[in-house]
Amino acid sequence: LPKILYLLDKYSITATFFTVGELAEEHPEFIDQIKQNHEIASHTHFHNNTDLNKQIILSKKTFKKLKINLKGFRCFGFQMPENLGETLTNHCFVYDSSVAKGFFPGRFNNVFSISDPYIASKDNLKKVLEMGKKVLMEIYEVQKKALKEKYHEVED
């Protein structure tokens, strides 16, 4: 951690550290070092698939003791529980960064998702996922047109 913080500071880069509450409890000295120049956001409390609401409550309590007001959130394992947007809104998170662009067989397929953080709400989460589907459909239409043109040329 000290080497990472040194490099970030050396090049005047600020970062957000999505941090598990359990780690913050075990190593508050890490949190003290990070919060000097960087944002700390929630990455749940235990980084496992237990009750999301409970994990958020525990995480917020832990960081409050460390005098950190959590604004951002990233769910564990790039998972997107159905109630994520509503839960984050209920717990007053400002933004969510759970949507990760990429593919991990059996876990998630967000290759065409918009991966920028968004304002945490149920409606915004739906919009982000719909935008990813729209991009996928646009790519499909371009590929379909290219194939038609290719095969049309072959027939002539």
Question: Key terms for this structure?
Answer:
single chain, 156 residues, two-stranded parallel ribbon, 6 helices
Helix content: 40-55%
Count of runs of 4 or more consecutive helical residues: 6
In round numbers, the mean pLDDT is 81
The parts where pLDDT drops under 50 for at least 5 residues are none
Strand fraction equals: 5-15%
Outline, from the CA principal axes?
globular
Radius of gyration over alpha carbons?
Answer: 20 Å
The profile of the biggest β sheet is:
3 strands, mixed
Structure classification:
mainly alpha
- The helix/strand series, from N terminus to C terminus, equals HEHHEHEHEEEEH
In spatial order, strands of the major sheet run: 3-4-7
The counted number of beta strands is: 7
Our measurement of the CA-to-CA distance between the termini, rounded to an integer number of angstroms, reads: 63 Å
